[in-house]
Amino acid sequence: MGETMTSDLTLATAYWDDPASRAAFKRFMLEIFGLDFSEWESAGYWDASYRPFSYFRKGEVVANVCVYLLDAIIEGRETRLAQISAVGTLPHWRAQGLNRLLLELGLEWARGKHEGVFLFGTEGAIPFYERCGFRAHPEFIEQMPSPGTARRPGLRKLDCTRLEDRETIYECARRRAPISRRFAVLNAKLLMFHALHALRDHAYEIPELECVVFYKREKRCLQVLDLVGARVLTLEQLYPYLAAEDDQLIEFHFSSDRMGVEGTRLVPWPQDNCFVKGSFPLERPVFPFTAKA
Predict the structure, then answer these.
(1) Which is deepest, 84, 162, 186, 246, by most CB within 10 Å?
(2) Is the pLDDT score of 2 beyond 90?
(3) pLDDT confidence band for 1 (50 / 70 / 90)
(4) What's the pLDDT band for 4 if we cut at 50, 70, 90?
């Protein structure tokens, strides 16, 4: 199929206020990506900063690109970044250039509203993004030896299906102090999407420190995925609540420069296939885990 059958399609954007169109978008995301947005929506975290560019046919989304404008701090200054996500097309409509057209429309709309464009692509999508002018960009995490300390009680596991626990997370996210002046992203509703999906089994509250921490362990490595609260905590304050006797390493999946951490090193993190278009304000970024759409 070489021709682009746009004459049979309707372009739509900024349609979140239309229940039928939003429901069609949710069906599309479930079919293409296996992601169910229903819980994020019903909990009240749907984010208008997540802007769709979609082709519809007979009330259904057949192709889509989303641009997520993210409030960010980079090298001490407040700014915005544009993240491309939810790029896909129903099988019958593929190989007709629809995603390229939508991507161009999304980038044109975002022009002048951000300091850089990035995305995370699957292996199969990399040739498409390269054809669209994106280039691979290095991504890192921070890693350090475990300081070794006794475990301190007071960590409470959160149940993200409970309203009270979700409100605890969201309140911390809305009031959060940026962990980093080097690179931080501050979109509370995007963080709540992670809390309801990839991180729902990894959310903990430390009431004494008035914070929420997302973490997990793999092979004697403590992976701290995010730390959310109204004040910045030091590693010395945080680690005793997370410590395990056999910890050998700590990984930070965010820049930890305000936490008083010493001895970290940047470790390449190629798993997420980071791509940028044009110039990007950071050469060696640690993309916050909860900033990835």
Answers:
(1) 84
(2) no
(3) very low
(4) very low
> Whole-model pTM?
0.93
Cα(64)–Cα(32) distance, integer angstroms: 10
Q: What is the pLDDT of residue 124?
A: 92
- State the average pLDDT over residues 223-248: 96
Would you say residue 152 lies in a domain?
yes
Strand partners, 78: 73
* 105 located within any domain: yes
pLDDT at 148: 85
Question: Which residues span the domain enclosing 28?
Answer: 6-138+272-287
Q: Per the structure, how many domains does the chain have?
A: 2
3-class SS string, the chain? CCCCCHHHCEEEECCCCCHHHHHHHHHHHHHHHCCCCHHHHHCCCCCCCEEEEEEEECCEEEEEEEEEEEEEEECCEEEEEEEEEEEEECHHHCCCCHHHHHHHHHHHHHCCCCCCEEEECCHHHHHHHHHCCEEECCCEEEEEECCCCCCCCCCEECCCCCHHHHHHHHHHHHCCCCCCCCEEECCHHHHHHHHHCCCCCCEEEEHHHCEEEEEEEECCEEEEEEEEECCCCCHHHHHHHHCCCCCCEEEECCCCCCCCCCCCEEEECHHHCEEEECCCCCCCCCCCHHHCC
